[in-house]
Specification:
It is a single chain. By secondary structure, the protein is of the alpha+beta class. It has helices at 50-64, 92-97, 137-142, 185-195, 200-203, 211-220, 279-287, 293-296; strands spanning 8-17, 24-28, 35-37, 47-48, 99-100, 108-109, 113-115, 118-125, 132-135, 158-161, 169-172, 175-180, 206-208, 223-230, 237-247, 253-261, 267-268, 271-272, 309-314, 319-321. The strands form five sheets. Strands 1, 4, 7, 8, 9, 10, 11, 12, 13, 16, 19 and 20 form a twelve-stranded mixed beta sheet that branches. A two-stranded antiparallel sheet has the order 2-3. It has a two-stranded antiparallel ribbon with strand order 5-6. The two termini are 17 Å apart. The longest helix has 15 residues, at 50-64. The protein has two domains: 8-116 and 246-317, no CATH class; 127-220, no CATH class.
Length: 322
């Protein structure tokens, strides 16, 4: 009798920005903002790359497991005496996030956890009725909340509004849109969003717009800040050191996926993986460090009050591979 062991499990998770989040593109450019944030190359909607999540989660897991800083680094020995990644089968950091050998050595391990990019699911926008959280069919499908055939085509110049009583029109930032009523999918969507652990006050002020409008609304309502370097000799602003940077605003809700490989399918230095025995164990290792995001944050400009994010939920495995 053949026993079929699943190769991986995928766990969706939801994050809510407690501060503005700045994941920079790595340089300045000419334009409205000097330091821009990472965007999807097709939709032009800002996102948090999976590489950014994996990097900070490795460091935070190493802190949580007492493996910091050696197992959290890039894996090479350093001048201060650090030996780099330990690469042991019982190390939860090296097995879950992978490891590299030291300088001049071969080998390594890719790791058991893989993070997708985090995409904007619900975006906060000011209106005459207070803050509203905007989404669109594209993001609902991307997050697995709805199927491709469920939503149909939304009107370009209208907004489907959750709150009651419904006004005849609603402004979303600089856009003034007619409110469309009678869309029977909205109640189904709000129930699924609530099941993800998203607070009721967000769900009560939910609005849906077309994919095309969503891109314009997000990019027109990002937080933009201005900073200047301080001259240490004078204690005043340094001449020519003024710059601007943008960020996803506080209370933005993002969705992502954590894919956990089955440790039973891998060996490290010809030894069985000991730190985790199943995809669920891999998820638990990662989940144990998500609380660090709530306090230490992700991305740049952390000293300027940016970066903190709370992970609301890691759902049970909804997608299983074999």
């Amino acid at each position: 009798m053949t026993i079929n062991i699943k190769s991986f499990s995928t766990f969706p998770f939801i994050g809510m920005a407690l501060d503005p989040i700045h994941i920079g593109t790595g340089g300045a450019r000419l334009g409205r903002v000097d330091n821009t944030i990472v965007r999807d190359p097709v939709t032009r909607i800002p996102k948090i790359p999976g590489s950014s999540i994996a990097g900070v989660m490795r460091a935070y897991t190493a802190m949580a497991k007492g493996k910091y800083p050696d197992c959290a680094g890039i894996g090479k020995p350093n001048q201060s005496g650090g030996v780099g990644h330990c690469g042991k089968p019982d190390c939860p950091v090296c097995t879950v996030f992978g490891f590299a050998k030291g300088t001049g050595e071969s080998g390594g391990f890719a790791g058991l956890a893989a993070f997708s990019d985090m995409h904007v699911l619900l975006f906060p926008v000011a209106s005459q009725n207070g803050p509203q959280w905007i989404t669109c069919p594209m993001e609902l499908r991307q997050s697995g909340i709805t199927e491709f055939s469920d939503l149909g085509v939304l009107p370009e110049q209208q907004v489907i509004y959750r709150n009651t009583p419904q006004p005849s029109s609603l402004n979303l930032g600089w856009l003034f849109l007619e409110v469309k009523s009678g869309w029977n999918q909205l109640d189904i969507i709000t129930k699924k969003i609530k099941s993800l652990g998203i607070p009721d006050y967000i769900n009560a002020n939910l609005a849906v717009v077309s994919d095309k409008l969503f891109t314009h609304i997000v990019n027109s309502n990002l937080e933009v800040r201005t900073s200047v370097a301080i001259d240490p000799a004078t204690g005043a602003a340094k001449e020519g050191a003024l710059f601007t940077y943008e960020a996803l605003p506080r209370m933005t809700v993002l969705s992502g996926e954590l894919t956990c490989r089955n440790p039973k399918h891998f060996k490290i230095n010809n030894s069985e993986v000991e730190a985790a025995k199943s995809p669920e164990d891999v998820k638990d290792v990662v989940n144990g460090a998500f609380s660090y995001l709530e306090h230490l944050g992700i991305g740049g400009m952390g000293s300027r009050g940016m970066g903190r994010m709370k992970v609301l939920d890691i759902a049970k495995a909804e997608k299983e591979g074999h």
